[in-house]
Amino acid sequence: MSPENGDPALEALRARLDEEEAAYSEVLAAVDRLASFPLPSETAPEVRERLDRLNALWSPPERPAGGGLGGALRQRAWDAVAPALERQSEFNAALVQLLNAHLAPLETLHTHLRELASAVVQYVQRVQPLIDARARVASSLATTRSELVLESFDRRLESLGRRLESLVALGDRMETMSETAGNDRGRRRPDELRRQLEANVALLRESAPVVDLSCGDGQLLEALRAAGIESRGLDSSAGAVRECRERNLDVVQDEPIAFLRGQPEGSLGAVFGGGIVERLAPAALPALLEESHRTLREGGLLLLEAGDPRSVVGLLESARRDLARERPLHPDALSSLAAAAGFTDVRIEPRSPVAPNARLQPVPPDGLSKRTVGVLNENVERLNALVYGPLGYALLARR
After folding, report:
1. If DSSP codes are grouped into helix, strand and coil, which group holds residue 60?
2. Which residue, 62, 366, 374, 390, shows the most beta carbons closer than 10 Å to its own?
3. For 208, which DSSP code?
4. What is the pLDDT of residues 77-118, one digit of tens each?
5. CA-to-CA distance for 71 and 66, rounded, in angstroms?
6. How far is CA 243 from CA 177, 207, 235, 344, in A?
7. Which among 207, 205, 195, 32 is positioned nearest to 120, based on CA atoms?
8. Cα separations (Å) of 286 from 257, 272, 290, 335?
9. For position 261, what pLDDT does the model report?
10. What is the pTM of this model?
11. Cα–Cα separations (whole angstroms), residue 324 to 219, 271, 275
Protein backbone atom coordinates (compact mmCIF):
# COMPACT_ATOMS: atom_id res chain seq x y z
CA MET A 1 0.00 0.00 0.00
CA SER A 2 1.46 3.37 -1.00
CA PRO A 3 1.96 6.12 1.61
CA GLU A 4 -0.65 8.23 -0.20
CA ASN A 5 -3.27 5.54 0.27
CA GLY A 6 -1.95 4.27 3.61
CA ASP A 7 -3.78 3.95 6.85
CA PRO A 8 -3.70 7.24 8.86
CA ALA A 9 -2.54 5.49 12.02
CA LEU A 10 0.30 3.78 10.12
CA GLU A 11 1.36 7.06 8.51
CA ALA A 12 1.44 8.72 11.95
CA LEU A 13 3.72 5.92 13.22
CA ARG A 14 6.00 6.37 10.22
CA ALA A 15 6.26 10.13 10.85
CA ARG A 16 7.05 9.49 14.53
CA LEU A 17 9.74 6.98 13.51
CA ASP A 18 11.36 9.55 11.17
CA GLU A 19 11.39 12.13 13.99
CA GLU A 20 12.98 9.69 16.44
CA GLU A 21 15.64 8.63 13.92
CA ALA A 22 16.51 12.29 13.23
CA ALA A 23 16.78 13.01 16.98
CA TYR A 24 18.97 9.94 17.43
CA SER A 25 21.30 11.10 14.66
CA GLU A 26 21.61 14.54 16.28
CA VAL A 27 22.46 13.02 19.68
CA LEU A 28 25.03 10.72 18.09
CA ALA A 29 26.69 13.65 16.27
CA ALA A 30 26.76 15.70 19.48
CA VAL A 31 28.35 12.86 21.46
CA ASP A 32 30.89 12.34 18.68
CA ARG A 33 31.81 16.03 18.76
CA LEU A 34 32.25 15.96 22.53
CA ALA A 35 34.45 12.89 22.31
CA SER A 36 36.87 14.59 19.94
CA PHE A 37 38.03 17.29 22.42
CA PRO A 38 41.86 17.84 22.45
CA LEU A 39 44.01 17.14 25.52
CA PRO A 40 45.99 20.01 27.17
CA SER A 41 49.22 18.26 26.21
CA GLU A 42 48.05 18.39 22.59
CA THR A 43 46.91 22.04 22.55
CA ALA A 44 49.88 23.38 24.65
CA PRO A 45 52.85 21.01 24.39
CA GLU A 46 55.12 23.71 25.84
CA VAL A 47 53.53 23.26 29.28
CA ARG A 48 55.47 20.04 29.79
CA GLU A 49 58.74 21.71 28.73
CA ARG A 50 58.15 24.60 31.11
CA LEU A 51 57.40 22.21 33.95
CA ASP A 52 60.64 20.31 33.28
CA ARG A 53 62.57 23.58 33.24
CA LEU A 54 60.87 24.68 36.46
CA ASN A 55 61.84 21.39 38.09
CA ALA A 56 65.43 22.05 37.08
CA LEU A 57 65.51 25.66 38.29
CA TRP A 58 63.83 25.48 41.68
CA SER A 59 67.06 24.42 43.59
CA PRO A 60 69.03 27.40 45.18
CA PRO A 61 72.63 28.16 44.03
CA GLU A 62 75.61 27.04 46.13
CA ARG A 63 77.39 29.45 48.69
CA PRO A 64 80.33 31.14 46.87
CA ALA A 65 83.81 29.97 47.78
CA GLY A 66 86.08 32.24 49.96
CA GLY A 67 89.55 33.61 49.15
CA GLY A 68 90.85 37.00 49.34
CA LEU A 69 89.05 40.16 50.17
CA GLY A 70 86.60 39.68 47.31
CA GLY A 71 85.78 36.18 48.39
CA ALA A 72 85.23 37.28 51.96
CA LEU A 73 82.95 40.08 50.80
CA ARG A 74 80.95 37.64 48.58
CA GLN A 75 80.48 35.24 51.46
CA ARG A 76 79.39 37.99 53.83
CA ALA A 77 76.93 39.21 51.19
CA TRP A 78 75.67 35.64 50.68
CA ASP A 79 75.23 35.13 54.38
CA ALA A 80 73.21 38.33 54.52
CA VAL A 81 70.70 37.19 51.87
CA ALA A 82 70.88 33.46 52.65
CA PRO A 83 67.71 33.40 54.82
CA ALA A 84 65.68 35.02 52.05
CA LEU A 85 67.15 32.69 49.43
CA GLU A 86 66.45 29.69 51.61
CA ARG A 87 62.84 30.77 52.11
CA GLN A 88 62.48 31.40 48.35
CA SER A 89 63.97 28.00 47.71
CA GLU A 90 61.41 26.37 50.01
CA PHE A 91 58.64 28.28 48.21
CA ASN A 92 59.93 27.18 44.83
CA ALA A 93 60.13 23.56 45.98
CA ALA A 94 56.53 23.63 47.30
CA LEU A 95 55.28 25.26 44.09
CA VAL A 96 57.07 22.76 41.88
CA GLN A 97 55.74 19.85 43.96
CA LEU A 98 52.20 21.27 43.76
CA LEU A 99 52.39 21.67 39.98
CA ASN A 100 53.78 18.17 39.58
CA ALA A 101 51.06 16.73 41.82
CA HIS A 102 48.31 18.57 39.84
CA LEU A 103 49.42 18.25 36.24
CA ALA A 104 50.12 14.49 36.23
CA PRO A 105 46.66 13.40 37.54
CA LEU A 106 45.00 16.05 35.38
CA GLU A 107 46.64 14.63 32.30
CA THR A 108 45.57 11.10 33.35
CA LEU A 109 42.00 12.37 33.93
CA HIS A 110 41.87 13.97 30.50
CA THR A 111 43.05 10.72 28.95
CA HIS A 112 40.38 8.74 30.80
CA LEU A 113 37.72 11.26 29.76
CA ARG A 114 38.68 10.84 26.11
CA GLU A 115 38.59 7.04 26.46
CA LEU A 116 35.18 7.27 28.17
CA ALA A 117 33.80 9.55 25.47
CA SER A 118 35.12 7.21 22.79
CA ALA A 119 33.47 4.24 24.54
CA VAL A 120 30.19 6.18 24.78
CA VAL A 121 30.33 6.95 21.06
CA GLN A 122 30.99 3.31 20.25
CA TYR A 123 28.11 2.25 22.51
CA VAL A 124 25.73 4.71 20.89
CA GLN A 125 26.86 3.58 17.47
CA ARG A 126 26.10 -0.05 18.42
CA VAL A 127 22.66 0.67 19.87
CA GLN A 128 20.96 1.16 16.52
CA PRO A 129 22.38 -2.02 14.91
CA LEU A 130 21.42 -3.96 18.05
CA ILE A 131 17.88 -2.61 17.93
CA ASP A 132 17.69 -3.37 14.20
CA ALA A 133 18.96 -6.92 14.80
CA ARG A 134 16.43 -7.49 17.57
CA ALA A 135 13.67 -6.09 15.37
CA ARG A 136 14.68 -8.45 12.56
CA VAL A 137 14.73 -11.41 14.95
CA ALA A 138 11.34 -10.42 16.39
CA SER A 139 9.94 -9.96 12.89
CA SER A 140 11.32 -13.34 11.85
CA LEU A 141 9.86 -15.00 14.94
CA ALA A 142 6.52 -13.27 14.37
CA THR A 143 6.55 -14.40 10.75
CA THR A 144 7.35 -17.95 11.82
CA ARG A 145 4.61 -17.91 14.45
CA SER A 146 2.17 -16.47 11.93
CA GLU A 147 3.06 -19.16 9.42
CA LEU A 148 2.58 -21.85 12.07
CA VAL A 149 -0.75 -20.35 13.11
CA LEU A 150 -1.89 -20.08 9.49
CA GLU A 151 -0.76 -23.64 8.83
CA SER A 152 -2.68 -24.87 11.89
CA PHE A 153 -5.67 -22.79 10.85
CA ASP A 154 -5.52 -24.26 7.33
CA ARG A 155 -5.49 -27.76 8.79
CA ARG A 156 -8.46 -26.95 10.98
CA LEU A 157 -10.31 -25.43 8.04
CA GLU A 158 -9.59 -28.52 6.00
CA SER A 159 -10.82 -30.74 8.84
CA LEU A 160 -13.92 -28.59 9.30
CA GLY A 161 -14.50 -28.70 5.56
CA ARG A 162 -14.44 -32.48 5.61
CA ARG A 163 -16.80 -32.55 8.58
CA LEU A 164 -19.09 -30.06 6.89
CA GLU A 165 -19.16 -32.18 3.74
CA SER A 166 -20.02 -35.21 5.86
CA LEU A 167 -22.77 -33.29 7.65
CA VAL A 168 -24.17 -32.01 4.36
CA ALA A 169 -24.17 -35.53 2.94
CA LEU A 170 -25.81 -36.82 6.11
CA GLY A 171 -28.36 -34.00 5.93
CA ASP A 172 -29.14 -34.90 2.34
CA ARG A 173 -29.63 -38.53 3.30
CA MET A 174 -31.81 -37.56 6.28
CA GLU A 175 -33.81 -35.19 4.08
CA THR A 176 -34.38 -37.89 1.49
CA MET A 177 -35.31 -40.35 4.21
CA SER A 178 -37.65 -37.81 5.81
CA GLU A 179 -39.32 -37.09 2.47
CA THR A 180 -39.91 -40.78 1.75
CA ALA A 181 -40.44 -42.08 5.27
CA GLY A 182 -42.05 -39.12 7.13
CA ASN A 183 -45.56 -39.93 8.28
CA ASP A 184 -44.97 -43.56 7.10
CA ARG A 185 -46.32 -42.56 3.67
CA GLY A 186 -43.35 -44.00 1.82
CA ARG A 187 -44.10 -47.47 3.14
CA ARG A 188 -47.92 -47.51 2.89
CA ARG A 189 -49.65 -49.30 0.10
CA PRO A 190 -51.22 -46.94 -2.45
CA ASP A 191 -54.75 -48.10 -1.65
CA GLU A 192 -54.13 -47.74 2.09
CA LEU A 193 -52.65 -44.26 1.62
CA ARG A 194 -55.60 -43.22 -0.52
CA ARG A 195 -58.09 -44.42 2.09
CA GLN A 196 -56.20 -42.63 4.87
CA LEU A 197 -56.04 -39.38 2.90
CA GLU A 198 -59.77 -39.60 2.24
CA ALA A 199 -60.42 -40.21 5.94
CA ASN A 200 -58.30 -37.20 6.93
CA VAL A 201 -59.99 -34.98 4.34
CA ALA A 202 -63.38 -36.00 5.75
CA LEU A 203 -62.20 -35.11 9.28
CA LEU A 204 -60.83 -31.74 8.17
CA ARG A 205 -63.61 -30.74 5.78
CA GLU A 206 -65.36 -28.40 8.22
CA SER A 207 -62.15 -27.07 9.80
CA ALA A 208 -60.61 -24.68 7.27
CA PRO A 209 -58.08 -23.17 7.25
CA VAL A 210 -55.89 -26.25 7.83
CA VAL A 211 -52.16 -26.21 8.55
CA ASP A 212 -50.01 -29.30 7.90
CA LEU A 213 -47.01 -29.00 10.23
CA SER A 214 -44.96 -31.59 8.33
CA CYS A 215 -46.32 -31.67 4.80
CA GLY A 216 -43.50 -33.71 3.24
CA ASP A 217 -44.34 -34.27 -0.43
CA GLY A 218 -47.67 -32.44 -0.05
CA GLN A 219 -50.07 -35.33 -0.67
CA LEU A 220 -52.50 -34.20 2.04
CA LEU A 221 -52.37 -30.59 0.79
CA GLU A 222 -53.19 -31.74 -2.73
CA ALA A 223 -56.13 -33.81 -1.43
CA LEU A 224 -57.41 -30.83 0.60
CA ARG A 225 -57.06 -28.52 -2.42
CA ALA A 226 -58.97 -31.01 -4.56
CA ALA A 227 -61.74 -31.00 -1.94
CA GLY A 228 -61.86 -27.18 -1.94
CA ILE A 229 -60.50 -26.88 1.63
CA GLU A 230 -58.22 -23.93 2.35
CA SER A 231 -54.87 -25.21 3.58
CA ARG A 232 -51.19 -24.48 3.79
CA GLY A 233 -48.16 -26.44 4.89
CA LEU A 234 -44.63 -26.22 6.19
CA ASP A 235 -41.60 -28.48 6.28
CA SER A 236 -38.01 -28.20 7.46
CA SER A 237 -36.76 -29.86 4.27
CA ALA A 238 -35.81 -27.42 1.52
CA GLY A 239 -36.23 -30.17 -1.05
CA ALA A 240 -39.77 -30.98 0.06
CA VAL A 241 -40.73 -27.29 0.09
CA ARG A 242 -39.31 -26.82 -3.40
CA GLU A 243 -41.21 -29.86 -4.72
CA CYS A 244 -44.48 -28.64 -3.21
CA ARG A 245 -44.07 -25.13 -4.60
CA GLU A 246 -43.47 -26.57 -8.07
CA ARG A 247 -46.99 -28.00 -7.77
CA ASN A 248 -48.34 -24.57 -6.69
CA LEU A 249 -48.94 -25.62 -3.09
CA ASP A 250 -48.81 -22.98 -0.33
CA VAL A 251 -45.77 -24.24 1.61
CA VAL A 252 -43.04 -22.51 3.63
CA GLN A 253 -39.79 -23.80 5.10
CA ASP A 254 -40.04 -23.53 8.88
CA GLU A 255 -40.12 -25.47 12.14
CA PRO A 256 -43.56 -26.34 13.63
CA ILE A 257 -43.28 -24.49 16.95
CA ALA A 258 -41.69 -21.40 15.39
CA PHE A 259 -44.40 -21.29 12.72
CA LEU A 260 -47.24 -21.59 15.22
CA ARG A 261 -45.79 -18.84 17.40
CA GLY A 262 -46.02 -16.52 14.42
CA GLN A 263 -49.77 -17.14 13.92
CA PRO A 264 -52.48 -14.99 15.54
CA GLU A 265 -54.52 -16.50 18.35
CA GLY A 266 -57.62 -18.40 17.18
CA SER A 267 -56.73 -17.99 13.48
CA LEU A 268 -56.65 -21.68 12.47
CA GLY A 269 -59.41 -24.22 11.99
CA ALA A 270 -57.27 -27.36 12.17
CA VAL A 271 -53.67 -28.34 12.90
CA PHE A 272 -52.40 -31.57 11.37
CA GLY A 273 -49.08 -33.22 12.15
CA GLY A 274 -47.97 -36.50 10.70
CA GLY A 275 -45.16 -38.11 12.66
CA ILE A 276 -43.82 -34.87 14.15
CA VAL A 277 -44.51 -35.70 17.81
CA GLU A 278 -41.93 -38.51 17.65
CA ARG A 279 -39.29 -36.17 16.24
CA LEU A 280 -39.55 -33.55 18.98
CA ALA A 281 -37.60 -33.56 22.21
CA PRO A 282 -39.76 -34.20 25.31
CA ALA A 283 -39.38 -30.58 26.43
CA ALA A 284 -40.62 -29.28 23.05
CA LEU A 285 -43.77 -31.43 22.84
CA PRO A 286 -45.78 -29.45 25.47
CA ALA A 287 -44.85 -26.22 23.65
CA LEU A 288 -46.18 -27.64 20.37
CA LEU A 289 -49.48 -28.62 22.00
CA GLU A 290 -49.83 -25.27 23.80
CA GLU A 291 -49.16 -23.26 20.62
CA SER A 292 -51.59 -25.46 18.68
CA HIS A 293 -54.26 -24.82 21.32
CA ARG A 294 -53.59 -21.06 21.20
CA THR A 295 -53.80 -20.74 17.42
CA LEU A 296 -56.92 -22.88 16.98
CA ARG A 297 -60.30 -21.22 17.12
CA GLU A 298 -63.03 -22.46 19.44
CA GLY A 299 -63.98 -25.99 18.33
CA GLY A 300 -60.84 -26.28 16.15
CA LEU A 301 -59.40 -29.73 15.52
CA LEU A 302 -55.97 -31.06 16.42
CA LEU A 303 -55.06 -34.18 14.42
CA LEU A 304 -51.70 -35.83 15.12
CA GLU A 305 -50.51 -39.10 13.61
CA ALA A 306 -47.75 -41.23 15.12
CA GLY A 307 -46.33 -44.74 15.03
CA ASP A 308 -47.80 -47.04 17.67
CA PRO A 309 -45.10 -48.46 19.98
CA ARG A 310 -47.61 -51.00 21.36
CA SER A 311 -47.22 -52.95 18.12
CA VAL A 312 -44.00 -54.93 17.86
CA VAL A 313 -44.17 -54.83 14.09
CA GLY A 314 -44.92 -51.12 14.16
CA LEU A 315 -41.98 -50.52 16.50
CA LEU A 316 -39.48 -52.66 14.60
CA GLU A 317 -40.59 -52.17 11.02
CA SER A 318 -41.75 -48.54 11.15
CA ALA A 319 -40.19 -46.47 13.92
CA ARG A 320 -36.70 -47.98 13.70
CA ARG A 321 -36.48 -47.41 9.93
CA ASP A 322 -37.09 -43.66 10.28
CA LEU A 323 -33.90 -42.19 11.80
CA ALA A 324 -35.55 -38.80 12.16
CA ARG A 325 -37.81 -40.13 14.95
CA GLU A 326 -36.32 -39.41 18.33
CA ARG A 327 -38.46 -41.86 20.32
CA PRO A 328 -41.79 -43.68 20.03
CA LEU A 329 -44.61 -42.04 21.98
CA HIS A 330 -47.32 -44.06 23.69
CA PRO A 331 -50.83 -42.83 22.81
CA ASP A 332 -51.77 -42.54 26.49
CA ALA A 333 -48.84 -40.17 27.09
CA LEU A 334 -49.83 -38.01 24.11
CA SER A 335 -53.46 -37.95 25.27
CA SER A 336 -52.42 -36.79 28.74
CA LEU A 337 -50.23 -34.01 27.34
CA ALA A 338 -53.02 -32.80 25.04
CA ALA A 339 -55.48 -32.67 27.92
CA ALA A 340 -52.92 -30.80 30.03
CA ALA A 341 -52.58 -28.23 27.21
CA GLY A 342 -56.33 -27.49 27.42
CA PHE A 343 -57.78 -29.74 24.71
CA THR A 344 -61.08 -31.52 25.20
CA ASP A 345 -62.77 -34.49 23.56
CA VAL A 346 -59.37 -36.21 23.30
CA ARG A 347 -59.50 -39.64 21.67
CA ILE A 348 -57.22 -42.14 19.94
CA GLU A 349 -57.96 -43.89 16.64
CA PRO A 350 -55.89 -46.80 15.23
CA ARG A 351 -54.22 -46.26 11.88
CA SER A 352 -52.45 -48.49 9.32
CA PRO A 353 -53.67 -51.96 10.36
CA VAL A 354 -51.53 -54.94 9.42
CA ALA A 355 -52.91 -56.92 6.49
CA PRO A 356 -54.89 -59.99 7.65
CA ASN A 357 -52.71 -62.40 5.69
CA ALA A 358 -49.65 -61.06 7.55
CA ARG A 359 -51.11 -61.83 10.97
CA LEU A 360 -51.01 -65.15 12.82
CA GLN A 361 -53.78 -67.43 11.53
CA PRO A 362 -56.29 -69.21 13.79
CA VAL A 363 -55.61 -72.84 14.71
CA PRO A 364 -57.79 -75.24 12.69
CA PRO A 365 -59.94 -77.55 14.82
CA ASP A 366 -58.82 -80.72 13.10
CA GLY A 367 -58.05 -83.42 15.65
CA LEU A 368 -58.18 -81.06 18.64
CA SER A 369 -60.77 -80.63 21.31
CA LYS A 370 -62.96 -77.59 21.21
CA ARG A 371 -61.50 -76.32 24.49
CA THR A 372 -57.92 -76.70 23.24
CA VAL A 373 -58.71 -74.89 19.99
CA GLY A 374 -60.38 -72.09 21.92
CA VAL A 375 -57.39 -71.63 24.22
CA LEU A 376 -54.92 -71.68 21.33
CA ASN A 377 -56.91 -69.20 19.24
CA GLU A 378 -57.31 -66.90 22.24
CA ASN A 379 -53.52 -66.84 22.58
CA VAL A 380 -53.20 -66.24 18.83
CA GLU A 381 -55.43 -63.17 19.13
CA ARG A 382 -53.37 -61.90 22.04
CA LEU A 383 -50.19 -62.35 20.05
CA ASN A 384 -51.73 -60.66 17.04
CA ALA A 385 -52.78 -57.70 19.21
CA LEU A 386 -49.29 -57.45 20.68
CA VAL A 387 -47.13 -58.23 17.67
CA TYR A 388 -49.32 -57.32 14.71
CA GLY A 389 -51.32 -54.42 16.10
CA PRO A 390 -51.94 -51.29 14.01
CA LEU A 391 -48.71 -49.65 12.90
CA GLY A 392 -49.91 -46.20 13.92
CA TYR A 393 -52.53 -44.16 15.70
CA ALA A 394 -54.11 -40.73 15.44
CA LEU A 395 -54.91 -38.32 18.26
CA LEU A 396 -58.00 -36.16 17.74
CA ALA A 397 -58.74 -33.31 20.12
CA ARG A 398 -60.85 -30.15 20.16
CA ARG A 399 -60.11 -26.70 21.49
Report:
1. coil
2. 390
3. -
4. 767 776 776 777 777 777 777 777 777 777 777 777 777 777
5. 4
6. 15, 26, 11, 36
7. 32
8. 10, 16, 6, 11
9. 94
10. 0.53
11. 20, 21, 10
